C-alpha cells in the first residue's frame, strides 16, 4: 500500500519549518478556516485542544484519504487569554501584562487518519523578565509580534526577554515536535 499524503492544516510558516526540522515535509499545506472564538469559561488547554481538533477535522472532511495534522497555540496569563494582538497598542498592552511574570503556552496538536482522531496538548511555562517601556516599544516597532499569539515570538528578538521556559520550545513556536511525531507514528505514518 502506498503512503497516504500528509496534509498540514495550517497557515503558520513556523509549523512548516518545525516539521522540516524533523524531516517531515507535508505533501500539501491546506489551512483550515475556522472560528477561533473561545467558549464561555473554556480553559486554555481545552481551547487549544478544541481548535486543533476543529482544524484537523475541517480539512480531513475535504481530504478523507490523507493524514491531516493541525495545531493551535494559546497564550494565557493568570485567567486572561492573550490572542494575536490586533495592533501595536494591543501588543504593548500584552507585553506589559507578560512583563516580570510567568505565563503559560498551550499547544494542541491533532491528527486525523481514516476518520480516527488523536490529539495531545502540550503545556509550557514561560518566564519573561521585567520589561522597560523602552524595551517594549523597541520590540513592538519591529513588527515581529504580528500573527503570533500573546504578542511575541520566542524565536525572534523577544527571545532575549525569556528568562526560563519549562516545557517545549517548539510548542511555544506553534508545534510540539515530540507529541506530533508520536501522534503520526501512532497512526502508522512514517516520513
Ligand atoms: C507564543 C508564540 C506564538 N507563535 C505563533 C505560533 C502560531 O503560528 C501563532 C498562534 O496562532 P494559531 O491560531 O495557533 O495558528 P495560526 O493562526 O498562525 O495558523 P493556523 O491556524 O492556520 O494553523 O502564534 C510563535 O510563532 N512564537 C511564539 O513565541
From TrEMBL:
It catalyses: dTTP + H2O = dTMP + diphosphate + H(+); UTP + H2O = UMP + diphosphate + H(+). Keywords: Cytoplasm, Hydrolase, Nucleotide metabolism. The record marks 14, 73, 155 as: Important for substrate specificity. The active site is at residue 72. It is an enzyme of class 3 (hydrolase). It comes from the Bacteria. InterPro entries: ITPase-like_fam, Maf-like. Its main location: cytoplasm. It is found in: Cytoplasm. The keyword Cytoplasm applies. Its EC number is 3.6.1.9. Signal peptide: none annotated. Its cofactor is a divalent metal cation. Belongs to the Maf family. YhdE subfamily. Nucleoside triphosphate pyrophosphatase that hydrolyzes dTTP and UTP. May have a dual role in cell division arrest and in preventing the incorporation of modified nucleotides into cellular nucleic acids. This is dTTP/UTP pyrophosphatase. It comes from Brevundimonas albigilva.
Amino acid at each position: 500500500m502506498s503512503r497516504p499524503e500528509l496534509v498540514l492544516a495550517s497557515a503558520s510558516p513556523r509549523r512548516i519549518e518545525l516539521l522540516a526540522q524533523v524531516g517531515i515535509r507535508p505533501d500539501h499545506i491546506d489551512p483550515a478556516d475556522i472560528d477561533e472564538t473561545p467558549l464561555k469559561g473554556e480553559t486554555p488547554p481545552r481551547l487549544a485542544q478544541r481548535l486543533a481538533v476543529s482544524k484537523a477535522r475541517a480539512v480531513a472532511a475535504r481530504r478523507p484519504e490523507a493524514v491531516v495534522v493541525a495545531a493551535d497555540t494559546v497564550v494565557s496569563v493568570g485567567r486572561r487569554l492573550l490572542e494575536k494582538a490586533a495592533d501595536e497598542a494591543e501588543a504593548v498592552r500584552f507585553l506589559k501584562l507578560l512583563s516580570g511574570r510567568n505565563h503559560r503556552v498551550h499547544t494542541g496538536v491533532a491528527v486525523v487518519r481514516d476518520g480516527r482522531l488523536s490529539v495531545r496538548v502540550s503545556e509550557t511555562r514561560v518566564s519573561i523578565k521585567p520589561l522597560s517601556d523602552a524595551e517594549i516599544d523597541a520590540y513592538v516597532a519591529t513588527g515581529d509580534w504580528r500573527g503570533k499569539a500573546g504578542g511575541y515570538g520566542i524565536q525572534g528578538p523577544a527571545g532575549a526577554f525569556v528568562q526560563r521556559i519549562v516545557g517545549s520550545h517548539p510548542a511555544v513556536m506553534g508545534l510540539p515536535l515530540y507529541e506530533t511525531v508520536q501522534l503520526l507514528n501512532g497512526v502508522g505514518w512514517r516520513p
